[in-house]
Task: inverse folding
């Protein structure tokens, strides 16, 4: 009987250590949150975002991180990244080209996240040059 009790106590102790390890790992993952304002409509992945104020949260499961975009308290999009490159300096910003988000630059975590471009049916005239747009972010998370 005493042996069973000792095994039970030892098992609970091991379970507590494992649970504490998972909890510590979850807390070690940095949170990145931010805000941005769109002056015009933009496409981000398969979502179309109207002009206005937005916030975002980044999940840190590289590669294939997900960016959750909210307008107020409502989730309006959840976009998966298609690639990640190193970025040690620069500004936190969204890079859009031809009305579609191409990258999310977050030097606070040392990364630039890249997104799939949806094919546009729009054709450019010979003299028309595709335009890039930079949307500045206010990052409110700690990043590291």
Result:
């Amino acid at each position: 009987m005493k042996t069973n009790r000792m095994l039970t106590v030892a098992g609970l102790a091991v379970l507590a250590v494992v649970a504490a390890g998972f909890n510590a790992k979850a807390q070690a993952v940095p949170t990145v949150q931010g805000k941005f304002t769109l002056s015009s409509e933009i496409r981000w992945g398969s979502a179309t975002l109207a002009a206005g104020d937005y916030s975002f949260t980044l999940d840190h499961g590289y590669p294939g991180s997900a960016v959750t975009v909210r307008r107020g308290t409502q989730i309006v999009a959840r976009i998966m990244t298609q690639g990640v490159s190193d970025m040690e300096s620069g500004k936190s910003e969204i890079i859009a080209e031809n009305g579609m988000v191409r990258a999310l630059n977050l030097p606070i975590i040392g990364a630039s996240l890249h997104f799939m471009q949806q094919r546009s049916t729009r054709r450019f005239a010979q003299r028309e040059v595709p335009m890039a747009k930079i949307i500045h972010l206010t990052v409110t998370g700690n990043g590291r």
User: Anything to note?
Assistant: Residues 76 and 96 are 18 Å apart (CA to CA).
